[in-house]
């Protein structure tokens, strides 16, 4: 049975049992507690916990792409060395949200395994949690008691992460046969490969909170997970997932690239590469970029680990990008977005590989030098240097030490890492401390979140609900001149978020509003009081007129985003943005610098949209409906279930909580000021609009006028060209003047000898000319650059003098050193007072040699 058929059979089986088939959710979950989607249940977490109502039907099935690299359930270190570990895999699952529970889950699983996959019953075993008598009973209806094993929490309790849904589980095992596996670990519960877990049925009953307590879920639920890779391997009679049709095409391709035959025993590197190319391709295709931290750093670690294994196979140039074609060929029919992103993903990988290849050789040299000195533990300082200077992630160094049986001094590495972070933090001058500790929780409990009314109005009569001092502690009043934070019952001030700057303004006649920020959902304005402010006061809140400019720049950012996707391609994903009164900045994923034609087109697209105009329309929608309607949402961003969707005609549609113009023609004009790189695969555009754009255009004109005045020409380009030509001519003249200097020379045994101190001119040309003029020549020129710097150059032709020895001798008298070839040599001296002496000795030297 091919992997494709296993996947289809599973989804069809559960569809027939009334389950809705759900497409795989993104690898970056809509959940800040997880690095990656690491199990099939992750997209349904909030249904399990009851935060989101049960769907209809309340039973689902999916084939979910997962990544286990970093965070809980991290398999990276083992990949390549075992038959089953992967960074990327597909998990088949069926889910019940309070509908069926253990009895049906077990019956379905048994039916699928024995009747669809037709695995022989005498090869199957199951495990249950030691306290789960219910599951133990139910299983006995399907399988003999002797084949049911009881284990504790370590084996039979599953949880998504440190927090989240969890519960006891029951696993189905397949016996691969004592004839193939017979180590002392090959028993049920042992570490051997004979008994292979193929399916995990989790009986979800609890939710674990941050402090570790477990509370019951609203309804007992089911989450099951079956690894497509291992089931495919079993169905194909293979003992390793890597021997199945899911991996062999990659292994063959790697063998083709390195020109060596793959053998299982020595083939870890082939397997590492085959696994890693799948993770890397899927992550990039889904908008994750190579980065110095977070998910992007895990992505970088995976790629670099693969590149290093390629290096071990003798591949010394970028190659991973070529394997993207294999991923698309193998998986593109099920995951159709892969083909769309194929070219840009290849380009991103190639560039990242090139970057790593520039340091890999020197890094390996440092590693090997240290390895030769290592007795017990590999130095944490060197591991840190490898990381910091050569881009070797720590787990890559650990991986390189693995077959030597050595470990890294991780404690020292962590210490150096912490020091570096502290240094970076000290150098960072941020504004607004969102992690600030203060009385926010108290305010939330007492008042809940306060309402933002600033979409509709820029002024309001509001009441002061609470005041905080500059340390965020509650106070009853702020005196004249004092600074603090104000919570209004409803506020027109926009709190900084989504890249948009926080509003400023005033409380009429009472206070200046300097900034507005969000703290744990509370919208608080930072004020400086010009009158006493007390809790309970009614004030008139007035947002600064700057807001109009901010809104224009924010709407222009949306148009820019749309233009980028239109002109560069749909791989463009927002990676950050900042919107201020007089400028905007937009970071986005794109593998290379933009050409000036691309920039022109983008600018033209945005300006045309402005001229055409389009009315802003906002709708509050369900997140899923919003995404389905084509609104741009950010990968990895945590959205509420209800979101605000903003569209400008058919030009742009995005999820956004910010404030905007009513019609895009209010933006006026739009100019790109700068395009630059932020990090690998991420570009930045800085732009301006509205009155800032006008000011910008005017300042350019002014600058040009000044240039014209300075050049005394109305055609500055012509004038510059003329100036450049003049400079070139002058340089040539100076050169000629120097070379035509009459150099005094004398004859020693037929050789024309010149030893002189040259005031100016191009020494090398002078020497060449002298050598051209005479059949046998020896010339030494010294040039005083400063009191302590003398250049000595010598040329020899058809004479038994070695120029290298000659200049060295002179340089030593001048307190320096140097040397060179027999016919031409240079040296440097330090002591100008010795010049005469040096000249005299140089003459002696010649006479002696030519005598
Ligand atoms: N969540 C469980 C697992 O990942 C079952 O799907 O094993």
From TrEMBL:
- One Pfam family, short name: tRNA_SAD
PANTHER family per the UniProt record, alphabetical: ALANINE--TRNA LIGASE, CYTOPLASMIC (PTHR11777:SF9), ALANYL-TRNA SYNTHETASE (PTHR11777)
Q: Which cofactor does it need?
A: Zn(2+)
What is this protein's name?
Alanine--tRNA ligase
Q: What is its EC number?
A: 6.1.1.7
Q: Does the keyword Mitochondrion apply?
A: no
Task: Supply the domain comment.
Answer: Consists of three domains; the N-terminal catalytic domain, the editing domain and the C-terminal C-Ala domain. The editing domain removes incorrectly charged amino acids, while the C-Ala domain, along with tRNA(Ala), serves as a bridge to cooperatively bring together the editing and aminoacylation centers thus stimulating deacylation of misacylated tRNAs.
Where found? Cytoplasm
Q: Which UniProt keywords apply?
A: Aminoacyl-tRNA synthetase, ATP-binding, Cytoplasm, Ligase, Metal-binding, Nucleotide-binding, Protein biosynthesis, RNA-binding, tRNA-binding, Zinc
Organism listed in the record? Campylobacter suis
């Amino acid at each position: 049975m091919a992997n494709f058929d296993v996947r289809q059979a599973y989804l069809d089986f559960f569809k027939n049992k009334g389950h809705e088939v759900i497409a795989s959710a993104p690898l970056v979950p809509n959940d800040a507690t997880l690095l990656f989607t690491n199990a099939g249940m992750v997209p349904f977490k909030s249904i399990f916990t009851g935060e989101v109502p049960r769907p209809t039907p309340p039973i689902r099935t999916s084939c979910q792409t997962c990544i286990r690299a970093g965070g809980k359930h991290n398999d990276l270190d083992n990949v390549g060395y075992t038959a089953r570990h992967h960074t990327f895999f597909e998990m088949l699952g069926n889910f019940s949200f309070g509908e069926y529970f253990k009895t049906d889950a077990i019956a379905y699983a048994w039916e699928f395994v024995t009747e669809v996959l037709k695995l022989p019953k005498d090869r199957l075993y199951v495990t249950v949690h030691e306290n789960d008598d219910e599951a133990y009973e139910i299983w006995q209806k399907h399988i003999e008691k002797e084949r049911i094993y009881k284990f504790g929490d370590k084996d039979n309790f599953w949880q998504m992460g440190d927090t989240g849904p969890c519960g006891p589980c029951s696993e189905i095992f397949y016996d691969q046969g004592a004839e193939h596996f017979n180590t002392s670990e090959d028993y049920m519960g042992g570490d051997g490969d004979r008994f292979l877990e193929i399916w995990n049925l989790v009986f979800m009953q609890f939710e674990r909170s941050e402090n570790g307590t477990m509370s019951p879920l609203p309804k007992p639920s089911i989450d099951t997970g079956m690894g497509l890779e291992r089931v495919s391997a079993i169905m194909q009679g293979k003992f390793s997932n890597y021997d199945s049709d899911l991996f062999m095409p990659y292994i063959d391709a790697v063998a083709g690239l390195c020109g060596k035959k793959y053998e299982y025993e020595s083939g870890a590197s082939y397997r590492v590469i085959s696994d890693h190319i799948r993770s890397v391709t899927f992550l990039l295709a889904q908008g994750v970029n190579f980065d110095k931290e977070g998910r992007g750093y895990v992505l970088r670690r995976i790629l670099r680990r693969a590149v290093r294994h390629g290096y071990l196979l003798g591949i010394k140039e970028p190659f991973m990008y070529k394997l993207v074609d294999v991923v698309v060929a193998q998986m593109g029919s099920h995951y159709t977005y892969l083909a769309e992103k194929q070219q840009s993903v290849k380009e991103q990988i190639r560039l990242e590989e090139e970057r790593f290849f520039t340091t890999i050789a020197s890094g390996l040299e440092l590693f090997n030098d240290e390895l030769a000195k290592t007795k017990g533990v590999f130095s944490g300082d060197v591991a840190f240097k490898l990381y910091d200077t050569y881009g070797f992630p720590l787990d890559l160094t650990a991986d390189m030490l693995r077959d030597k049986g050595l470990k890294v001094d991780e404690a020292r590495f962590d210490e150096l890492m912490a020091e570096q972070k502290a240094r970076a933090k000290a150098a960072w001058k941020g504004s607004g401390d969102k992690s600030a500790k203060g009385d926010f929780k108290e305010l939330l409990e007492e008042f809940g979140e306060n309402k933002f009314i600033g979409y509709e109005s820029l002024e309001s009569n509001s009441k002061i609900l609470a005041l905080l001092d500059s340390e965020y502690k509650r106070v009853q009043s702020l005196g004249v001149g004092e600074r603090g934070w104000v919570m209004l019952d409803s506020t027109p001030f926009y709190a900084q978020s989504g890249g948009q700057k926080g509003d400023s303004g005033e409380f009429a006649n009472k206070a200046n509003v300097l900034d507005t920020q969000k703290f744990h959902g509370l919208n608080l304005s930072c004020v400086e009081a010009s009158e006493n402010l007390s809790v309970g006061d009614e004030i008139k809140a007035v947002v600064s007129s700057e807001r109009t400019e901010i809104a224009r720049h924010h709407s222009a950012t949306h148009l820019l985003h749309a233009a980028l996707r239109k002109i560069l391609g749909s791989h463009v994903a927002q990676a950050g943005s900042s919107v201020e009164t007089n400028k905007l900045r937009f970071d986005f994923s794109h593998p290379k610098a933009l050409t000036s034609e691309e920039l022109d087109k983008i600018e033209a697209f945005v300006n045309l949209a402005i001229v055409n105009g389009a009315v802003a329309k906002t709708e509050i929608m369900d997140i899923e409906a919003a995404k389905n309607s084509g609104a741009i949402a950010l990968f990895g961003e945590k959205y509420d279930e209800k979101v605000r969707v903003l569209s400008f005609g058919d030009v742009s549609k995005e999820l956004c909580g910010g404030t905007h113009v009513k019609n895009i023609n209010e933006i006026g004009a739009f100019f790109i000021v700068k395009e630059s790189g932020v990090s690998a695969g991420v570009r930045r555009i800085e732009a301006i609009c509205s009155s800032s754009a006008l000011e910008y255009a005017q300042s350019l004109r002014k600058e040009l006028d000044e240039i014209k005045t300075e050049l005394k020409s109305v055609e500055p380009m012509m004038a510059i060209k003329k100036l450049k030509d003049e400079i070139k001519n002058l340089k040539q003249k100076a050169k000629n003047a120097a070379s035509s200097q009459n150099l005094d020379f004398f004859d020693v045994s037929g050789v024309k000898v010149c030893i002189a101190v040259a005031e100016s001119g191009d020494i090398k040309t002078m020497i060449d000319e002298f050598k051209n003029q005479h059949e046998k020549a020896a010339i030494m020129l010294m040039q005083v650059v400063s009191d302590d710097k003398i250049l000595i150059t010598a040329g020899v032709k058809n004479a038994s003098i070695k120029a290298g020895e000659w200049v060295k001798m002179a340089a030593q008298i001048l307190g320096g050193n140097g040397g060179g070839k027999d016919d031409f040599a240079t040296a440097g001296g330090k002591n100008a007072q010795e010049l005469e002496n040096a000249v005299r000795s140089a003459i002696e030297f010649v006479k002696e040699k030519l005598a």
